[in-house]
Amino acid sequence: MNILIRCFGCTANFGEAAQHMKMLKKAGHIIVNDASLADIAIIRTCCVIERTELNMLREITSFTKRSIPVIVTGCMASSRRVIIEERFPKVVFCSFGEEAQLPEMIESLHEDSIDRETTGCEKHKIPGSEMGTLLKSNIVSPTADELSTTHIEVISNGCLGKCSYCITRFARGQLESYSREKIRSGINKALGNGKKEIFLTSQDNAVYGFDFGFKEKKYYLPSLLNDILKDNSDYNFRLRVGMMNPWGLARIIGELIPVMNNKKIYSFIHLPVQSGDHEVLVSMRRRYKRSDFVDLVSQLRQGLPELTLSTDIIVGFPGENEEQFARSFDLMKEIEPDVINITRFSPRPGTVAASMKNRIVGWKAKNRSRELTKLRFDITDRKLSGRRGTRLKALSVEAGTKNSTLLRTDNYTTVVVKEDLPLGIFFDVEIIDSTDIYLVGKVSS
Predict the structure, then answer these.
(1) What share of the chain has pLDDT > 90, as a percent?
(2) Which of 2, 45, 195, 334 could be disulfide-bonded to 74 (CB atoms 3.0-4.6 Å)?
(3) Do 159 and 282 sit in the same domain of this protein?
(4) pLDDT tens, residue by residue, 321-376
């Protein structure tokens, strides 16, 4: 059967969607990119904020109104199943832990709809204007996956956090670290098949192995990284360690920094702070203080001088007053992260924060977001402009627009080269310009 897989959300979601694709291809199905050719659509959902959830519902609608069977996987299959069932009673759900049953679910759907017209009939065709809208969203493409230089390895599911605003923890549950053997095998196979970039991903990479019940840190993330490097000493590749929360990072930072000094690991850390105010952090149930975050950043920058630091901020959290927002703003000015991901608070059903009083009105949250966004781009523009005239080594990872290529430096900074370069190759590039998002380079002769 022809299966369309559409994926949204975090890197872990995309890694899991790629696993779906491989499983279904092995079962004899064809993965298609064209929605008009799909017998069945699988939607890997995200529900982290309300706007994303609404986008998911629109995606489901786009298929069900054309009588294309839909399987919903990802976070909404677990945490928001009721609202989907109310609107789409014929949708099939594949929750976490049930993914191995996808081939059987597809077979059952096929049998139930055996009298459908054949694939490609007018019933399935989507008008051109709507097709253009659909294809702008993120799609797990079989061609892209096979040609991509990147392999996503999911190392765990769930987390140990109790953040008051987070609905994802209800969907994914408590931390379940995957076996080291499984992870190492997946990475070894990917590198053997020519992949050049490995993303280690989960809801919180820093707590990998904390659920194993061992007291020795030899079971934690730094040890896993060492094993991966030893396994693949003959390969030239880059490994990106995904998001880590401050509470977990504080417990492994002494062992992590020496490992991350290996040239095969991007000097890149995604460390969400969410707020620079102590009272707001307590209300968020983040389990660290502002000073803890500042100390972690200091240690990271001392141990990794070329570090690219990415962080997250939530603005407009219930009760956040002007002085508390100012503390977040001042923290960003003090720390000067290379990337600041800014999100306006979105109340998610069932979370503690959804029932908190003193909700911040939309226009205030929007203004705060604008202030932080301006600061974010001012910082990035200044930092990147300082790299003009330098020469760097960078890995070509993705085809860009208008015959350009995206490359990543050793600290994960994006370089755009206005040439159609082969992917998976390390180039020496000269930085000739910059924007407030990326560097512009040319290949050195």
Answers:
(1) 63
(2) 45
(3) yes
(4) 999 999 999 999 999 999 999 999 999 999 999 999 999 999 999 999 999 999 99
Nearest to 66 by CA among 124, 150, 110, 135: 124
Pairwise CA distance, residues 216 & 251, whole Å: 12
Q: Are residues 121 and 188 in the same domain?
A: no
- Of 177, 183, 178, the closest CA to residue 160 belongs to 177
Residue 7, pLDDT score: 87
User: Residue 253: which domain range?
Assistant: 144-385
Distance CA 359, CA 365 (A): 10
Q: How confident is the model at residue 146 (pLDDT cuts 50, 70, 90)?
A: low
Number of domains into which the chain is organized: 3
Q: What are phi and psi of 101, to 5 degrees?
A: -90, 5
Q: Which is nearest to 109 in space by CA: 235, 224, 1, 267?
A: 1
Residue 44 has pLDDT above 70, yes or no: yes
Q: Report the C-alpha gap between 82 and 265 in whole angstroms.
A: 42
In this structure, the number of other CB atoms found within 10 A of the CB of residue 129 comes to 7
Q: Rounded CA gap, 200 and 392, in Å?
A: 24
Considering the entire predicted model, what is its pTM? 0.85
Contact 265, 411 (CB under 8 A): no
Band (pLDDT 50/70/90 cuts) for residue 120 is: very low
Say how far apart CA 293 and CA 389 lie, in whole Å. Answer: 33
Single-letter amino acid code for the residue at 69: P
Same domain, 99 and 153: no
pLDDT at 111: 66
Q: Which residues pair with 282 in a beta bridge?
A: none
CA distances to 11, 33, 34, 209, 286 from 139, rounded to whole Å, are 13, 7, 10, 31, 33
Question: CA 426, 427, 431, 435: dihedral to nearest 10 degrees?
Answer: -50
- Report helix, strand or coil for 126: coil
* CATH number of domain containing 88: 3.40.50.12160
